[in-house]
Amino acid sequence: MGGATEVAQPRGGREDGPGVAVTVLGVDIGGTSVKAGLVDESGRVIEQQSQPTPHSSGDFRQLLRALAARWAGRFDAAGFGCKGLIDAASTRVIRSPGPVAFLEGLSLSEMAGLNVPARAGNDAHAAMAGEMRWGAARDHRHALLFTLGSGVGGAIVADGRLLGGVSGIAGHLGHVTVDPWGACCICGNRGCLETVFSARALEAEVWRVVNAGCATKLAGGPVTCEALFEAAAGGDRAATVILDKAVYQLAAAIAGLLFAFDPEVVILGGNIARAGVLLWRPLAAGIHERTRAFLGREVPLVPQQTSDPSGIAGAAALAMAGI
Ligand SMILES: [Zn+2]
Q1: Residue 49: its pLDDT value, please?
Q2: CATH architecture of the domain covering 14-132+308-318
Q3: For residues 84-89, average pLDDT
Q4: Cα(208)–Cα(24) distance, rounded to whole angstroms?
Q5: 261 C-alpha vs ligand 1 centroid, how far in Å?
């Protein structure tokens, strides 16, 4: 499991020498859609397509074969990003609870019938691979990435390598315990970061204060993170209390991880990372306050830089050399 191995080389092999372009097929497998495309060395998605996620392994195999056939002969390697626990070298899906659970035990590369090198990883690892190659982690050997969305994903670069651990689980930063007595988490633990700072957790808090009858502009409106941040920006007391607490806990979790991994940079991606100063300012202040004395420096907190919301480029980056 894990382990390193073949990565993209120019068509025709190394003897072609420098200057021969590498093109990689990137496939992002999500719960609702499968996005795929050809990615060049600069991270540009040259061509792409998106289709609804099939509901069976037979249909899925057909889709992957069709993608491989569409771009046959035009790519040197393939990279797959998929939710769950994926074996990087064999591209086998080890565990993926949810809509693509039928992929468990199957190798994505074999399903696609590929005869080029292939690598795979979960969606956060794919995002970090993109950042390592083209984005905020490009010039760093030590970096942390958090994807703040409906859940919290994560990835760690240590000594220039994307950390997988013995079973590929390393980097699941959303499952760091921040409250030992906290709420049950999807992973089987309780009080994970994801149970206090994620769209699901924040929206659950909004439901709670509305149901409790608290005076808030959130009552009667949409229960979304956008509405929560908007209400807090407008001075809504209940919204501010929810956010203050959640951001405080996120800062505490990141502070602990800074001591564990001593990164040069912390990268934030995902929908919630676009919330603006209401998130970034108190978060940076909270992290620095907790870590400044011991670290002796402020670790930059920066947004994800690769401009590929599809996830295709990140998936392709997994298969490019040096990750
Ligand atoms: Zn958890």
Answers
A1: 96
A2: 2-Layer Sandwich (3.30)
A3: 91
A4: 46
A5: 20
